[in-house]
Amino acid sequence: MDQGITTTDELWATLARDRRRAWVRLLLGRETDGVAPIRSGLIIVGPKPEGWESRRWIYPDWSFATAEMTARAVTAWLTAGETHELELGEMNCSLTLSENAQWFRHASRQQYGGIEVPWPSRSVTVSMVDGQTNPPGGYLVGSKGPSFPTFAGAYGAFFYDQWSQTGASQPTLGEIAVRIVDGRARIRRVLVRAASVDVWVDGRNVGGCRLELNSSTDRLETMIERSGKISLPLGSGLGDDPWLWLKDGTDWIDYRPIRQWGGRQSPDVEFEISEDPVAEITALAAQGETTYLEYKRDLPEDNPESKRKVLKTVVAFANGDGGTMLFGVDGDDDTGTVVGLTGKPAELLRRLNSLVRDRISPAPIFHISGQQIGSRYVIRVDVSPGGGTLHALVLDANRPEYYVRRNGSTYYARPEELAQVAAKAVQQTLGGIRPGL
Q: Does residue 93 contact residue 110 with C-beta atoms inside 8 Å?
């Protein structure tokens, strides 16, 4: 993540120049002498957020409220070290912010702080002085507003419209997050084809930006003249870890990892389904093994070591970002050759399917298919990423084996690598409840 340190003075200067609207969500503490202290806040500067509505929920010790104002009006909050009393409609609030702040830059369509914004953005998170940071316990039942079994559930519903109570995580209080939408340009859609990557871009300042594709095999860059579709030809396939960058000089505006990154695939990245599976398998066999592709000449034999040699890669794909295995192909990192499998196709498919389901726990999400290429038969197994679920190879019921994929090879997983896999599930469950992160 692109991030750094800034100050409330710099944030003040940025908002003072911004003529757009600011959409505010606040958590307030108990009123004293008619003034309620702000305990947490999320401010989005730019277009009206999808699903926005004006509302206020009131509970005995807490209340949640929204407000709409200009970006310039937010600057009244931003003198560090001073306590500000603010009038927001019928509410009187107080707020004291610290001087230092942390900024984060986000690509479009990526979830940070529980919110997905359709444009690139920059978040600035400022801590409060002497603010309450520990969420309370107990139920929240009020006369004005829905009731919740946990404070975390109420917070997630109000700030992020996440109404599921199961797994709701306690938020971090004592912070104001200001998220400033960057409408200059964005990547709106990506379509990966067999011989090209098509990218749709738009925005108010697209002309003069550059689009870069960077991977282990192809590095292309082109100037953008106007909004619309741009086609980048592929010479040797996508290669490992392909990324798209939308940039202006050395300043990136937006980006897309074409494959999954951080356990998540951007919803606007699509892959064209091949109408010629023979051509697709032939192309995969010719390109050589990668982090996401491995060849096996044969199906495993009926002994533990042979099963381990094959199935450990399926485990590694499931513990990572997914991948494809081709059985009946012999080769290495440079190229592969279709040699075919020996046996009846239906029995081969059934045997491999049973091995994956019986020997990997929990069973990964995968798709298995066979294809006749001339006189040779090849089986393709596409393994989906586990999204944080830890998958193990179980050849001995008392000794599960965990594997990960690194640099095109499969290795026993180290403890810190298992922790990284599990962290993906935690991130998805939390939904990034902390504002601005």
A: no
Q: How many domains does the chain have?
A: 3
Proportion of the chain above pLDDT 90, given as a percent: 51
pLDDT digit string, tens, across residues 86-121: 887 778 899 999 999 999 999 998 877 667 789 999
Q: Within a domain: residue 358? A: yes
Q: Is residue 412 part of a domain?
A: yes
Q: Does 30 map to a domain?
A: yes
Give CA–CA dist 132/164, Å, rounded.
25
3-state secondary structure of 185: coil
The predicted-structure confidence for 143-154, as pLDDT tens digits, reads as follows: 888 999 999 899
CB 352 within 8 A of CB 379: yes
Tell me the pLDDT band of 435, cut-offs 50, 70 and 90: very low
Are 404 and 391 contacting, i.e. CB atoms less than 8 angstroms apart? no
DSSP string, 44-109: EESSPPTT----EEE-SS-EEEEEEEEHHHHGGG--TT-EEEEEETTEEEEEEEEEEEEEEEE-TT
What is the residue range of 340's domain? 277-427
Given a cut of 70, whether residue 61 has pLDDT beyond it is yes
Give kind and range of the element (H or E) at residue 277.
helix 277-287
Residue 80, classified by CB atoms within 10 Å of its CB into exposed (0-12), middle (13-18) or buried (19+), is: middle
In whole angstroms, what separates CA 311 from the centre of its chain? Answer: 28
